């Protein structure tokens, strides 16, 4: 199966030119630092150009808008979360053990990323609420990983098989989303550990054959 991240092309995210161009990486890195300091909404492409020492026109050779630059940064940030979750998915232990750790790992990784770097919280909120490509790809990746765990659990006889697979994955995804969305997660930080443990336990009890 091709992962959502592999399907995310430069054009889909508003990028132009070669995906691995050195200047593109330089622009993204400088923009990342600029957004962390000043915030996404208070920064213009002209501000970025001045900070990097390039012309605005040159930046537009690689990105068609400020949002496209934000997309690249947001995708990189969210990939830090999905990388931790993918590491769990590929571990050689039972599907139940892996799924039990999925909720708390998602919440902890999000809390560390969104709230220790407050400016990054703002850009991720924008990505999710405005349906940026980076935000929708993030959702797709979470759904894909959940589906993998459920399928493997069913094949191993750990999970029931009567409920339609799509229905099961949708329901589990709904229990994850409050910990994946930065605004929802912010409201749960003080009870995050207890909430994720309780939900993971509830999901696993529902999946028993």
From TrEMBL:
Q: Which residues bind DNA?
A: 44-63
Does the record's keyword annotation contain DNA-binding?
Answer: yes
Q: Please name the Pfam families in this protein's record.
A: TetR_C_27, TetR_N
> Which GO MF terms does the UniProt record name?
DNA-binding transcription factor activity; transcription cis-regulatory region binding
Where in the sequence does UniProt note compositional bias of the Low complexity kind?
A: 1-17
Q: Which residues form the HTH tetR-type domain?
A: 21-81
The record's InterPro entries line, in alphabetical order, gives:
DNA-bd_HTH_TetR-type_CS (IPR023772), Homeodomain-like_sf (IPR009057), HTH-type_TetR-like_transc_reg (IPR050109), HTH_TetR (IPR001647), Tet_transcr_reg_TetR-rel_C_sf (IPR036271), TetR_C_27 (IPR041478)
Highest taxon of source: Bacteria
Q: Which terms are listed as keywords in the entry?
A: DNA-binding, Transcription, Transcription regulation
Q: Region annotation Disordered: residue ranges?
A: 1-22
Classification via PANTHER family: HTH-TYPE TRANSCRIPTIONAL REGULATOR BETI (PTHR30055:SF234), HTH-TYPE TRANSCRIPTIONAL REGULATOR RUTR (PTHR30055)
- Protein name, as recorded: TetR family transcriptional regulator
Q: What is the lineage of its organism?
A: Bacteria, Pseudomonadati, Pseudomonadota, Alphaproteobacteria, Rhodospirillales
